[in-house]
Design a protein that fits this description.
Strand content: 25-35%
Order of helices and strands: HHEEEEHHEE
Distance between the termini: 18 Å
Helix content: 25-40%
Shape: globular
Number of domains: 1
Structural class: alpha+beta
Length: 102
């Protein structure tokens, strides 16, 4: 499924850098970095240089690569809802922490 929904460039970035970067649709200059490790929080790179972390997890088990897709699709299609649902964490936390994604 990942190969069908990510572009060649996105797949290369995920492989090369260990994360997929998604640009915000609501805040100019904001970027999200989604780790290829499914349980890691999403890093939010704010235009002013601050870095925040959002933690949102699937309610049922999902393959790690598919978790990357869930974050990407939700950030691109329902960014405000993503922010309402996610826990804001001060640093990267272990797997299984945070609110449910779906």
């Amino acid at each position: 499924m990942v190969a069908r929904l990510l572009s060649e460039g996105e797949r290369a970035q995920l492989q090369r850098d260990g994360f997929l970067e998604v640009r915000s649709g609501s805040v100019k200059g904001r970027r999200y970095r989604i780790s290829r490790r499914g349980g890691a929080p999403v890093a939010v790179l704010e235009p002013d240089g601050r870095v925040l972390y959002l933690c949102l997890q699937p309610a049922t088990p999902v393959a790690e690569q598919e978790v990357v897709l869930l974050h990407k699709l939700m950030l691109e299609g329902a960014e405000d809802d993503y922010w309402r649902r996610a826990n804001r964490v001060g640093r990267i936390m272990g797997r299984g922490m945070g609110r449910h994604l779906l």
